[in-house]
Fold:
Amino acid sequence: MNEDFAQGSAANGFDVGRFFAGIARGAAGALLFALPMLMTMEMWELGFYMDRTRLLILMALNVPLLIVLSDRVGFEETATWRQAIRDASVAYCLGVIASGLILVAMGVVTSDQAPHEVIGMIAVQSVPASIGAMLGRSQLGGQSQHDDADTDDPLHDRESSYAGELFLMAVGALFLSLNVAPTEEMILLSYKMTPWHALLIIVASLALMHSFVYALSFRGSHDLAEGTPGWHAFVRFTVPGYVIAGLISAFCLWTFHRTDDVGTTQVLMMIIILSFPGAIGAAAARLIL
Structure:
């Protein structure tokens, strides 16, 4: 019976073995990406007091992000949006299950806690865990020669467009920003920094972004066409990438209540601080993804 099921799935273009291998890598990716946050006290506390509207917005935005990302690094090569939605749903489920099991195993979630507290903690943690589950395939291997082959799939063509590159930058920025945005250090650093520190961090972020992608010979980095001026890449990718990292940082800080009852100057400082790892994540998106 299992053999007939496998043959039928293969006939429909669905490789059962590769799919479940992808799920195993997805579970490992969920732990790899979310474990630092699962062991962070600020993330546990967010499950108690985080505004449910903000939590709902975060979870709602995570769904289309996973769907688009699934076409890039899904458990199984996707040819339609239906398959992409399938992969995104599996990744989200893996994120929820992995977050719940780890929180229970560490004693963070106990039987005497109120249901809304448990749901809140798991819901917050499931967002980074689901992204990690989706990225598990690319980070932990498993891409076959077939996956790397050229395809006429319009979804893959869209990913290679300029908009697709900016999307990957946003995911890369989110990849690193989520790990530090909930921490109290963001608030502390915003009060310790001077405008000169902020300017130095901005310059360093832009310089690292540009060198990461275009100056260093990393796998997946962009090669400029011969005769193309260096400033073209800086204006077309580095500056927009930094702006994206800043927007992602601002959203994460607002979502995790780090901007509540804080002055405008301190909020700006926090965005600049968080944009530093966010910018590196955006620049390294091709390497991460």
Notes: The chain is about 75% helix and 0% strand.
